[in-house]
Write a structure and sequence with these properties.
The protein has no helices and 15 strands. By secondary structure, it is mainly beta.
């Protein structure tokens, strides 16, 4: 039986551009022991776009979704994850999750990947050659059955970038690499893989609430 997915905090990865910048990992308090010491969070940069709320009132793009969780935007499309239908105990029922999309201008939702087990976090970006790409994590039907998935949007080419993961959560990507975090029982493991295909590489592990490491540890980041 799957764990209740609403009862934990998700580690979140954030990337900044360039080989001399850093990858930031933010983890909720349930991800490791509380030592009583909390590191300051990184400063947030200015938003890309500021739009007055009264100038663009909100409206529902999709209704009747099964526990929507993660959200990602492209210039034309909204993407999200449906964690799946819940039983009476609040536990996700197997094979009821999905990844879906809808045009930002409105329309009919499209299911991009159905029958998933607890897909949660997803991220949109431009992969190798500037190709629009969507990545996400899925908890899987049991321990060490989680996956990290990649969808090359032109052509809808879907691949499993990593399998056998223990509760994979946060995902992030840049133009060359995919990053994700998963559980190691007491904290989280941070891994990376080239979007062009490679063997997953462990970058580190931690149980701390805030952790960062040099972006130059990426397998595709070569310095002179």
């Amino acid at each position: 039986m799957l764990r209740p997915f609403l009862h934990f905090y998700l580690p979140i990865l954030a990337l900044t551009a360039g080989c001399d910048t850093r990858v930031i990992l933010l983890i909720g308090p349930d991800s490791g022991p509380d030592t009583g010491e909390h590191k300051p969070l990184p400063e947030a940069g200015p938003p890309d776009v500021v739009v007055p709320v009264d100038a663009n009132p909100s409206h529902a793009l999709a209704v009747g979704q099964l526990e929507p969780q993660g959200l990602a935007l492209s210039p034309t499309t909204v993407y999200w994850s449906n964690a799946g239908r819940l039983d009476d105990a609040g536990v996700a029922i197997l094979h009821t999750g999905s990844i879906a999309s809808i045009p930002r201008a409105g329309g009919t939702p499209t299911t991009l990947d159905p029958a998933l087990d607890e897909p949660l976090v997803l991220s949109y970006g431009e992969g190798p050659g500037g190709v629009p790409t969507l990545v996400w994590s899925a908890g899987g039907p049991g321990t060490f059955q989680g996956t990290v998935n990649e969808l090359v949007i032109p052509g809808n080419t879907l691949t499993v970038a990593a399998s056998g993961q223990q509760f994979p959560y946060g995902v992030a990507m840049n133009a060359s690499d995919l990053y994700w975090v998963s559980s190691n029982g007491t904290g989280v493991v941070i891994q990376s893989e080239s979007l062009a295909g490679s063997t997953p590489m462990q970058l580190g592990e931690t149980g701390e609430e805030y952790w960062s490491f040099p972006r130059s540890t990426s397998p595709s980041c070569v310095t002179g």
